[in-house]
Amino acid sequence: MRALVSGGSSGIGASASVRLAEAALARGEQAMIAVCGHEPNGGQDQVVRSIQSMGGTAIALAGDLGNPDVPSQLVEAAAAEFGGLDALVANAGIASPGAICDLSLEDWDGMFSVNLRGAWLLAKASYPHLRESRGAACFTSSMSGQLPHAGSGAYSPSKAALTMLAQTLALEWAPDGIRVNVVSPGMTHTRMTEKMYADPQLKKAREDIIPLARIGDPIDIANVIEFLVGPLSGYVTGQDICVDGGFTKSILSHIPGRPSSRS
Predict the structure, then answer these.
(1) CATH number of 2-188+217-244
(2) In CA terms, which of 41, 54, 90, 110 is 20 to 30 Å from 156?
(3) pTM above 0.90?
């Protein structure tokens, strides 16, 4: 398994990097993971060491995906090091809340440059390598890309567009044997959300409206990413899997007066 994971320094990306290596080694394959981050940092180094400690190969790559030159540079560096690519995990993303009409042009363009354009350019650069290996790609979207969320700024629009990008690529790349899928996390405890979940009352209030009654962990998302780029999903493409403990499918149960399965 030769994989590039963007946003691999922490949270979902870090867990996915380690999980991909772990699964590949368990199958008796080489595990070669490019852990990509915005800039070099200790978290990225720790992920690399974790993969190396289990017998895999890992390299740390860094660059701002908002820079249009960076995605192809990351892909080519990883492909040169590994002799190709079997998987792309386009996971990097940024979020900044705000009302749509309060956003500046810079706010809007900044969000789309990373969340959408950066992922597109990663995919574009990865295509010849994935075609050669008949590999797979997984894009990290969000439940906010499935349902509108007032106050999310450009985040929800960018994630909805990312999902459509991935599903369009799934159709365009299918003749080449490349599978493309999407994972859409629900409420998940990551570095980005850490301050929010440090408030025990807020955390409990959120857990109370999730059918599985807990906030997601990065490994919950990483397990699905590994499935979607691994051999067990060989007949799965163009799908958007929401990993949210059942939350998005429970919306109607929150209408006052409706019957509930809970006593």
Answers:
(1) 3.40.50.720
(2) 41
(3) yes
